[in-house]
Specification:
Layout lengths: L3 H14 L6 H21 L4 H21 L3 H22 L1 H11 L16 H20 L4 E5 L6 H4 L3 E6 L2 H7 L10 E5 L2 E7 L15 H12 L3 E5 L6 E5 L2 E3 L4 H11 L12
Parallel strand pairs: 1-3
Antiparallel strand pairs: 1-5, 2-4, 3-4, 5-6, 6-7
Helix pairs in contact: 3-4, 6-8, 6-10
Length: 281
Amino acid sequence: MLTNSSIWDIIQRLLRALNPIQNIQAWLDIGLVTLMFYWLFRSLWGTRAVQLLQGIAVILVMMLFLGSVLPFTTMRWIFENVLQPALVVAIPVVFQPELRRLVELLGQTNRFQWLQFRRPTPSDTRLQMVKTVARAAQLLSQQNIGALIVFERNVGLQEYADRGVFLDARISVPLLMAIFHPNAPLHDMAVLIRGERILAANVVLPLSEEMGGARRYGTRHRAARGITEQSDAVVLVVSEETGAMTIVNDGQMISQLNEERIVRILTGVLQIDTNADEVPA
């Protein structure tokens, strides 16, 4: 049993071991490990791996609590003999896209892009962004030009952005019109918006197989529903055949839209403060 004197001895030994003058190697070791975990976290940020890690952490905490803190022998046996081996096998499979992205990141020319922080987007800027997108969608609809615009929310979509054409451009009506123009090389796929900027264009999205037998929906609507089934993204679709505008959220479609209704729905879904002062266009 630990006494006050033994605890103090342990603390003193720890302080001596971490003395930067006597043992600088320990501090270098701690610093390198810290940088490694920081790089790992920044590399995974913006992907679904963050949500997967949270889910795994919840499972581990629950199993540890039920199997170790409480006297549940069967639960402890399941944790030690079933769950732990399963996680060892499942983690490389579940995180295969993220692990591949980490390796690719090491080979990129700009190796320090993981040091860049994403600044919070003010509500007034986001409101202006929504109005700009709604105006562009209205113009595209009037000309029967198809469009697929994805708004990233909490679940990162970086793995999809990496497959497209990186832009990181300020949103404007002329830019969206140029991207989705029928003769433009990027018009067929989706535009991905992060914050108030266009992150990437020509983004390929997963197609949904659950369209309820509605044959009037084409590839754009299937892609819109597919990405909302796999994430919490919100998608605005403009039909090339009819010019109809549709918002897809959580796998559900909202149709019969106009410019004003698009602004109202998106500000609500994206939780934008409509009382903020607007930024001049």
